[in-house]
Structure formats: C-alpha cells, structure tokens
C-alpha cells in the first residue's frame, strides 16, 4: 500500500482563503477589521519568527495585527498589566501570548487572565476545561490540534468509532488533540515517555497523532496497515552527503539542516492509508486555524 499524502499547504490555503473572503465581506459591510494582538516576551529567535509570521498572516488575510514586545526580564506585573489592557481594548479581538514564556513568568496565571472571548490560542483553563467536558463547547480550540483534526476530516478519515493513539500529552498538542478525538467519538489512548510497549500500542491505531518531538521515532512496522498518520513533530537534522558526511551549504559555509517529523516517513508511506508530510503537513495548519479563531473572536464579540 502507498499512503495518500494529506497536503497541509493546500488545506491551510483553503482555510485562509475562506477567512479572507469572510473578512472582506465584513469590512465591506462597514464592520471593524478582526484584529489579533500578539505578545512576545524575550528574544527567542524561534518565538520571534512565529510571532512575525502570525502578524504577516493577519495582513495577508485583511485582518489587523498589533504586536507587543516585552523584554526577557519583564515582570509578572508587567505582563499581566499588558494582558489586562488588551482585554479592555475594544479594537483587539484576539490575544496571543507566545509560549514558552520566560521562567520568571507564571504562565498559568497569564493564560488565566486572557478574556475567554479573546483567547484565540484556546489555552485558557476555561476553554480547555470546556473541551474536556462532555456536552460543553470551548469558544476556541488550540490551533495545532484543531489543524490535525481538520486535516483528518478533510481527508475523509472516519473518526467516530476509530481507535486513535496520541503520542505525547503536552498542554499545547497531545492533550487537546486527545480531547478533540474523544469529542468526535474516537476511542483514544494517550502515550507518553513512561508508556510501555509503544510500538504495540501504536499498532492498534486506526488514527495516529504523533507529537513527541523525537526524530523519526515511529517506524513503518509500528503502523497498522491503512492507518491515518498525522505527524506533528518538527525536528531539525543535518543533511548528509551520500558518503554519510554532513553536507555543507555553499552559501553560508555551515552544515545544512532539514526538517523531519516524529514518523519515519518513507517507511510509513508503505503501510499507512493517509499521512501528513513534514514539512507541509500540520505546520501550515497552525496559523490558518489561528486566523480562523481570530475571525471567530470578532464574530463572537459582535454578537454574531
Ligand atoms: P513537549 O511539550 O516536549 O511534549 C512531548 C510529549 O512527548 C510529552 O508528553 C512526552 O512525555 C512525550 N514523549 C517524549 N519522548 C517520548 C518517548 N520517547 N516516548 C513516548 N513519549 C514521549 O512537545 P510538544 O510541544 O507537544 O511538541 C511535540 C512536537 O510537535 C515537537 O516536535 C514540536 O516541535 C512539534 N510542534 C509542532 C507544531 C506545528 O505547528 N506543527 C506545533 C507545536 C509543536 P512526558 O509527558 O512523559 O514527558
């Protein structure tokens, strides 16, 4: 069997196009531009890059964005004061405080402070609590797991009644992904670093979501034939020459790097029914779902 590749770039573009069309309709009708406020604390280059690509996506979709940058030694009070002012600001529809926050900041307190109607990242305890309760709906679902489920649905994978295995139990990917799958009536097993016989558990999965951050750990012979495999992992590895030595970039003179997932793609391709590539699978979905959540925030705040 050769798996069908689920192209996250294509699906993410469709989501973005739909959001852009809806935003254009709203602004043509004289409604304010949906606007996202981002908060970056410190100078982590990866966080700065994520925040900047979120602002860029807002622009591309006709939405507004404001970015706030606090120094790495910002105090809890400074961060909380900023969040309170963004909660009160009627021109701001969504608030995203980029994670991870520096160690002196109590992340949980900051996330709890974000108004539930502006919590477009979906990490406030109220949104997560609602996700965990039967019959309750969160206002916003965390963007990466939301993207994973959206990809499965777009590919036509049947979630109801499926055996789903989620590798990883982080607050931002694994746990919310598991809760979403339960909400869609899958039977879910969540694995973590203390799980025994991981290959044996994964072999039961009709749907596998891998979010452990371990380079190509899931091998082809772990996968049930025909399973749908969603690879969330993003791992940077050196590019090797045919003789096994590191390839050097002609431009920079430095060793070349490439991104791979948590799943050994070539092996999994031979067994799975569906698979997401890395890059180009889940990655582009995260920002697309954030844009969707920001539009939704504007709609909720306008009483729609
Ligand atoms: P994380 O917070 O480091 O959590 C990793 C999880 O994997 C933990 O629950 C951990 O178990 C489990 N784990 C680690 N090693 C394991 C092993 N050998 N066997 C079984 N379980 C193991 O990571 P994360 O933030 O969820 O991210 C996971 C991956 O997704 C990373 O590669 C990250 O870069 C990527 N990611 C991608 C996107 C995207 O937009 N595509 C977004 C977010 C994250 P314990 O709980 O027992 O420690």
Describe what you observe in this structure.
The radius of gyration is 20 Å and the shape is globular. The strands form 3 sheets. A 6-stranded parallel beta sheet has the order 1-11-8-7-5-6. A 3-stranded parallel beta sheet has the order 3-2-4, sandwiched between helices. Strand 2 (about 35-40), helix 2 and strand 3 (about 65-70) form a beta-alpha-beta unit. The chain contains 10 helices and 11 strands. The protein has about 300 residues and is α/β, with parallel strands linked by helices. Helix 6 crosses helix 10. It has helices spanning about 10-30, 45-60, 75-90, 105-115, 125-130, 145-155, 175-185, 200, 265-270, 285-300, and strands at about 5, 35-40, 65-70, 95, 165, 185-190, 205-210, 230, 235-240, 255-260, 275. The model has no long low-confidence stretch (mean pLDDT about 95). The structure holds NADP nicotinamide-adenine-dinucleotide phosphate (NAP). NADP nicotinamide-adenine-dinucleotide phosphate (NAP) binds near residues 170, 195, 214 and 234.
Mean pLDDT, to the nearest integer, reads: 97
Low-confidence stretches: none
Strand content: 15-25%
How does the major sheet shape up?
6 strands, parallel
N- and C-termini, Cα separation: 46 Å
- List how many beta strands DSSP finds: 11
Question: What count of helical segments does DSSP give?
Answer: 10
Shape: globular
Order of helices and strands: EHEHEHEHHHEHEHEEEEHEH
What compounds sit in this structure?
Answer: NADP nicotinamide-adenine-dinucleotide phosphate
What's the oligomerization state? single chain
């Amino acid at each position: 069997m050769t798996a069908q590749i689920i192209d996250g770039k294509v699906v993410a573009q469709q989501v973005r196009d739909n959001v852009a069309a809806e935003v254009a309709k709203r602004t043509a009708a004289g409604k304010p531009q949906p606007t996202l406020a981002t908060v970056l604390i410190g100078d982590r280059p990866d966080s700065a890059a994520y925040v900047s690509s979120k602002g860029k996506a807002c622009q591309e979709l006709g939405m507004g964005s404001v970015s706030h940058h606090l120094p790495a030694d910002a105090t809890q009070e400074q961060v909380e004061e900023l969040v309170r002012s963004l909660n009160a600001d009627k021109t701001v529809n969504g608030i995203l405080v980029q994670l991870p926050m520096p160690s002196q900041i109590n992340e949980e307190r900051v996330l709890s402070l974000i108004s539930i109607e502006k919590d477009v990242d979906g990490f406030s305890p109220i949104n997560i609590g609602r996700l965990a309760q039967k019959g309750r709906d969160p206002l916003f679902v965390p963007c990466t797991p939301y993207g994973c489920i959206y990809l499965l649905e777009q590919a036509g994978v049947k979630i109801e009644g499926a055996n789903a295995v989620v590798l990883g139990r982080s607050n931002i990917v694994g746990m919310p992904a598991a809760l979403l799958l339960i909400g869609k009536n899958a039977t879910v097993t969540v694995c973590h670093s203390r799980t025994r016989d991981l290959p044996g558990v994964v072999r039961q999965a009709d749907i596998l979501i891998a979010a452990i951050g371990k380079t190509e750990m899931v091998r082809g012979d772990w996968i049930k034939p025909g399973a749908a495999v969603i690879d969330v992992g993003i791992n940077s590895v050196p590019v090797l020459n045919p003789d096994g030595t590191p390839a050097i970039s002609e431009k920079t003179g430095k060793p070349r790097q490439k991104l791979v997932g948590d799943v050994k793609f070539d092996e999994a391709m031979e067994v799975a029914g569906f698979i997401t590539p890395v890059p180009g699978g889940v990655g582009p979905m995260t920002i697309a779902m954030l844009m969707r959540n920001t539009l939704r925030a504007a709609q909720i705040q306008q009483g729609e």
